[in-house]
Amino acid sequence: MIGFNKQDVLLAFNLFKMNIQDRYLGSSLGSFWAIANPIFMLGLYTYVFGFVFKIRLPGSETTLSYVIWLISGYGPWIATTEAIMASAASVVGAAGIVKNMAFKTELLPISAAFAGLISLLVSFCFLVILMIFSGDYPSWHVLWLPCIVVIQFFFIAALGLWLSAINVFIRDLIQVLPNLLTIILFSTPIFYAMDSMPDLIKSISYVNPFHHIADSYRKVLVEHQNPNYLGLVYLIFLSLGIFLSGLAGFRRVKGSFDAVL
């Protein structure tokens, strides 16, 4: 049903590299910005919440614990946002290739989704440095990270199949998407704890996949616990449903791409 082979995997990897190179084409520092941009954002939030607002977690003596807690959820969000935007714009951005080459165009949003891996890796490094500085070293629970990363980007690739196909026909989507992601960010317990939310909103958050992604990273990185198994299972089945339906929908309409690109 899915119909991907080894050649498709190799092509997806090459598309991923091309996507990273094209994004920073023409800039003096090139792909360095892929590292510099997330470091700048993480450094900014560290300064604002650690030295300006000086927010502390309950029972903590320093502001650094809140900064670590925040980045453990916000770092993956930066990667998620970058990956969703890249995936949604992938087909339109590769219009020349789509119209002139015969290949499985569904590989475009899937490969573009993995652009967020660079930001995620930078966020992990930034977080580990802060944790070492605070004396709170990562535990063996970080062994869960590969599983969580795979589930996260499977979910993003699934969304990307839908968004990239819709964006071909409704170009306003790429303009609306940043605002929609901002709304999701502040309605997801990333800057604040779940316990601080009203009961009704808290109940809704349990079906919010972005909450389960952030919560999984926090549990294994900062809280030194196993992730919520039910949350991961929910993410897997939700992602699978979105991916299979998105793949079927994408393949149904991709024959019309040439007419509108």
Number of helices: 13
Radius of gyration: 19 Å
| Structural class estimated from helices and strands | mainly alpha
Largest sheet: none
Mean pLDDT figure: 87
H and E order: HHHHHHHHHHHHH
Spans of at least 5 consecutive residues with low confidence: none
Shape: globular
Distance between the termini: 27 Å
Beta-strand portion reads under 5%
Tell me the count of domains: 1
Helix share bin: over 70%
Report on this model:
It is built from 13 helices and no strands. The protein is an all-alpha fold. The protein has one domain. It is globular and about 60 Å long. The mean pLDDT is 87.
Topology at a glance:
Blueprint: H1 6-23, H2 32-52, H3 64-88, H4 90-93, H5 95-100, H6 107-113, H7 116-134, H8 145-169, H9 173-187, H10 199-205, H11 209-221, H12 229-253, H13 257-260
Helix pairs in contact: 1-6, 2-3, 2-7, 3-6, 3-7, 3-8, 3-9, 3-11, 6-8, 8-12, 11-12
Concise account of the structure shown:
It contains 13 helices and no strands. With 261 residues, it is mainly alpha-helical.
Characteristics:
mainly alpha; 72% helix; 261 residues; globular
